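RECORD TYPE: protein structure
NAME: Mitochondrial coenzyme A transporter SLC25A42
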Amino acid sequence: MGNGVREGQVFQKDVEPVTSTHLPSEDNQEKKKVLNSLMSGALAGAVAKTAVAPLDRTKIMFQVSSKRFSAKEAYRLIYRTYLNEGFWSLWRGNSATMVRVIPYAAIQFCAHEEYKQLLGSYYGFQGKALTPFPRFIAGSLAGTTAAMLTYPLDMVRARMAVTPKEMYSNIVHVFIRISREEGLKTLYRGFTPTILGVIPYAGLSFFTYETLKKLHADHSGKLQPSPPERLLFGACAGLIGQSASYPLDVVRRRMQTAGVMGHTYSSILLTMQEIIREEGLIRGLYKGLSMNWVKGPIAVGISFTTFDLTQILLRKLQ
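PREDICTED:
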């Protein structure tokens, strides 16, 4: 019996360290989850944007000019750029895009995972799919968070896309010249239409993608869609999100590049009025949308698919 008591005492001492190491283990898991989201998001953004960079640059050049857009004119511009400046000039500004997109996508995807968790706890859906409204809110908050933290890089990227090499030699040079010649406030020109555009764009993109994945799981009985299905769901998400927010994207680009295009735009409404007066409602505010219907779904489809598959791979490796 005496031995039994001593054994029981030893057993109790052995239990204590297990309870004391429980919380640190949970903290480590949460840190790993956040790190995985950041890494997956960064890769997703880089792959998607590089894939569509020539189309993106062409779209911006039409958005900031008064030229009428057509598929034929877009092709001519791409071909002329290739002949005059070389093949790699089609990716001009992509280094600035990467500097912006990698942190933007990393923050957006990571924030989305965190907002989903927070809203799930708040609405009582912990561990389950969110209902439609919280699903939209999680996407909007994620996009807004990322845009607020990385906006000056978007401004720099737009400037590099519409100017010749001689004007800005690199990203740092853009920052220096804008700050010296136009003032630091210029780095945030177009910020308001960006945020107003990001709310429906990110909200609808994440909402559509998450909804299609849920519907697929409910009707097919499979927990995870295949990569081609993910690409399709992401393409639908990009099509809906970008179509809803496109006029504000045009306004944002005009305000960002006003300093080098010879215009002065003081507010969102005045910018819209001027565009409509000079170019018309559809031809002005929706200029380049048809190209976006090609570029957007490809980019968003690649982005969501890359994020999901990288997340799955990292979880397996750990």
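COMMENT: The chain has 13 helices and no strands.
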